[in-house]
């Protein structure tokens, strides 16, 4: 069988730099200059899953994103990873969106482009980490959806088997296609992309669309379509008065053991 | 004018017949918020079948009302059935707020319900309070916990929120509390067959000591150096009956094959009496998950490690040497523990 797979990716500031993010005390906004953007890490595992499934079952992979125009760089990377085509919704009218409005716009983008058997995403993004979009995308599209997938296998042309990791164990489900699946990073290892793939990627179709290209309901997009509103931002400070424990390895070990005894 | 909120609902999940700890944490917070509004009720919501016994347990927590949403199709968690049932209940009774623990179930169910109801949801809140303009302010972490943002949900109802276990404090409940029980049967017609079917469940071996309940938590970081010392740390944990948690690096290095005991913003939050970290650098996304620990002792060979800033005791040394010295010490008589 041939699978049409969609993967949603989110460009985020590089998580390696998060400990450097500060808040402008006057403007009360985030200061994230000089922090480069990357594809959110869990989304790469979704891309890896898509590529593995295409290797096994044949088909195609389309990548989707809703982001500012600079996100072309991350879409190019996804094409270099192995996607066949890419679609970017970039428009101020959809900007400032919370997860409900973002997932609505993404659903409109995907449905505008075509029908897909499976829509894959990372469970949560590195920056916001709400883990909302996969479930909300499924709801907007009236498709079955499942998060926390640690295994996905095609069973037939109408269903997949999904292993979902709960706290106490792993549940296996049969999910009818088409469906939305969000993956945990432990599902697979992300492959290395050879540099030559980037040259080939430039020849693959990358389409940038605006809000006017899609049939969007204004009530559901952007700030208007976002029931959650952001307020104050703070950078939390954690600090304690620290006492060193010094000495030989044995002395240090004994000092720690003595403290453990208090709590045992 | 005061806080205008008439009801806060909290979804109750069971574990071995008892309500999960996050329910009590949410209940304590809900009562604190409700006390700032006139006549605001705090209610528990249960989904499943044969809920009498569980309802009686939840009633003791101090809630004013327990909503028992019963239907055979709700016996085991199934997202689409649960969303429909909660949507029905919400449309009938119009709560002002609906909160859930951010368990694996809650973290999937909450956004699904929020989308079905077209309402706002604040995820993984680290605090909830009454902000200015007498609105509930939900504090949520971003950028690995380096930024905490305030989320308001001014217009849509119910306001929804999820909170991880171990973040909020729970007050002990008065065991003699009573509650009104309201039974509700949602409309889940036989003709609707879910496109999702549960086939099997494979329990994972539960660790000897549950991370969230442990008085002592050992934490492994990248600085442990090798899988051999990851094994030794686990041995140490068994010796002293401590739970063993770890940072994201340990998952990435594949010493641990699951995220289940990962401590941090995308893992678990712990506040044990004693946290003992080995080779943990102290990146914010980890610190957010353990900063409320009682006593924090950190071992790291890097004297500039960030973790030392939030530790009560610091040991600048190679983790491997200290672990070996501790294991050697426990092997001798003088430190024989109750676990031997």
Question: Unreliable runs of chain A, pLDDT <50, ≥5 residues?
Answer: none
In CATH terms, what is the architecture of chain A?
3-Layer(aba) Sandwich
Based on helices, strands and strand pairing, what is the structural class of chain B?
alpha/beta
- Helix proportion range of chain B: 25-40%
- The CATH architecture of the largest domain in chain B is 3-Layer(aba) Sandwich
Largest sheet of chain A: 9 strands, mixed
Q: What is the H-and-E element order of chain B?
A: EEEHEHEHEHEEEEEEEEHEHEHEEH
CATH class descriptor name of chain A: Alpha Beta
**What helical percentage do the residues of chain A reach?**
25-40%
Euclidean distance between termini CA atoms of chain B: 62 Å
- What's the overall geometry of chain B? globular
What are the low-pLDDT stretches of chain B, counting only 5+ consecutive residues below 50? Answer: none
Number of domains of chain A: 1
Query: How many structurally independent domains of chain B?
Result: 2
Description:
The complex is a heterodimer of chains A (264) and B (340). Chain A has a single domain, classed as Rossmann fold (3-Layer(aba) Sandwich). Helices cover 27% and strands 29% of the residues of chain A. Chain A has helices at 41-57, 72-81, 99-113, 133-140, 195-201, 249-263, and strands at residues 3-8, 11-13, 22-23, 30-31, 37-39, 59-66, 85-89, 118-122, 145-154, 159-165, 169-176, 179-183, 206-209, 229-234, 243-244. In chain A, the strands form three sheets. In chain A, strands 11-10-9-12-8-1-6-7-13 form a nine-stranded mixed beta sheet. Chain A has a two-stranded antiparallel sheet with strand order 2-5. Chain A has a two-stranded antiparallel sheet with strand order 3-4. In chain B, strands 7-11-6-1-4-5-12 form a seven-stranded parallel beta sheet, with helices on both faces. With 340 residues, chain B is α/β, with parallel strands linked by helices. Classes of the chains: A alpha/beta (264), B alpha/beta (340). Chains A and B meet through helix 3, helix 4, strand 9, strand 10 and strand 11 of A and helix 3, helix 4, strand 7, strand 9 and strand 10 of B. Strand 11 (169-176) of chain A pairs antiparallel with strand 13 of chain B, so a sheet runs across the interface.
């Amino acid at each position: 069988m041939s699978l049409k797979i969609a993967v949603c990716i989110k460009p985020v500031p590089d998580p390696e730099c998060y400990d450097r993010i500060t808040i402008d005390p006057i403007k009360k906004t985030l200061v994230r200059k000089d922090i480069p953007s990357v594809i959110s890490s869990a989304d790469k595992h979704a891309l890896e899953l898509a590529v593995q499934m295409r290797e096994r079952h044949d088909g195609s992979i389309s990548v989707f994103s809703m982001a500012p125009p600079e996100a072309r760089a991350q879409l190019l990377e996804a094409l270099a990873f192995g996607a066949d085509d890419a679609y970017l919704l970039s428009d101020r009218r959809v900007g400032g969106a919370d997860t409900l409005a973002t997932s609505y716009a993404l659903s409109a983008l995907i449905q505008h482009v075509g029908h897909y058997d499976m829509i894959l995403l990372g469970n949560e993004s590195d920056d916001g980490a709400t883990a909302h979009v996969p479930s909300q995308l499924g709801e907007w599209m009236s498709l079955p959806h499942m998060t926390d997938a640690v295994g996905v296998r095609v069973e037939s042309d109408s269903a997949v088997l999904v292993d979902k990791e709960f706290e106490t164990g792993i549940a296996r489900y049969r999910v009818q296609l088409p469906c939305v699946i969000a993956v945990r990073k432990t599902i697979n290892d992300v492959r290395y992309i050879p540099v030559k793939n980037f040259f080939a990627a430039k020849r693959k179709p990358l389409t940038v669309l605006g809000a006017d290209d899609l049939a969007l309901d204004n009530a559901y997009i952007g700030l208007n379509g976002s029931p959650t509103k952001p307020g104050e931002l703070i950078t939390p400070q954690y600090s304690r008065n620290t006492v060193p424990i010094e000495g030989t390895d044995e002395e240090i070990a004994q000092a720690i053991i003595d403290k453990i005894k208090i709590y045992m | 004018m005061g806080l205008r909120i008439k009801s806060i609902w909290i979804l109750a999940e069971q574990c071995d017949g008892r309500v999960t700890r996050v329910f009590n944490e949410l209940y304590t917070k809900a009562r604190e918020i409700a006390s700032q509004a006139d006549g605001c009720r705090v209610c528990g919501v249960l989904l499943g079948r044969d809920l009498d016994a569980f309802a009686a347990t939840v009633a003791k927590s101090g809630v004013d009302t327990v909503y028992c949403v019963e239907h055979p199709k709700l016996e085991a968690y199934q997202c689409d059935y649960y969303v429909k049932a909660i949507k029905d209940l919400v449309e009938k009774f119009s709560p002002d707020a609906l909160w859930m623990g951010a368990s694996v179930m809650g973290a999937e169910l909450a956004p699904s319900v929020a989308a079905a109801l077209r309402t706002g949801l604040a995820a993984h809140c680290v605090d909830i309070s009454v902000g200015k303009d007498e609105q509930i302010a939900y504090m949520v972490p971003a950028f690995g916990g380096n930024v905490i943002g305030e989320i308001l949900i001014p217009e849509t109802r119910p306001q929804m929120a999820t909170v991880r276990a171990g973040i909020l404090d729970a007050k002990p409940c008065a065991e003699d509390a009573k509650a009104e029980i309201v039974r509700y049967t949602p409309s889940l017609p036989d003709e609707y067959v879910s496109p999702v079917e549960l086939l099997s469940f494979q329990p994972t071996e539960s660790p000897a000591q549950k991370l969230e309940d442990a008085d002592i938590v050992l934490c492994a970081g990248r600085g442990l150096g090798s899988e051999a010392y990851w094994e030794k740390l686990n041995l140490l944990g068994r010796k002293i009956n401590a739970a063993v948690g770890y940072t994201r690096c340990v998952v990435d290095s594949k010493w641990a094959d699951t995220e289940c005991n990962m401590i941090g913003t995308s893992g678990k939050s712990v506040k044990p009496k004693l946290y003992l970290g080995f080779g943990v650098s102290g990146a914010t996304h980890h610190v957010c998950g353990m900063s409320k620990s009682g006593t924090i002792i950190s071992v790291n060979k890097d004297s500039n490690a960030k973790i030392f800033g939030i530790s009560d005791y610091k040991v600048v040394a190679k983790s491997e040497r200290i672990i070996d010295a501790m294991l050697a010490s426990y092997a001798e008589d003088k430190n024989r523990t109750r676990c031997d």
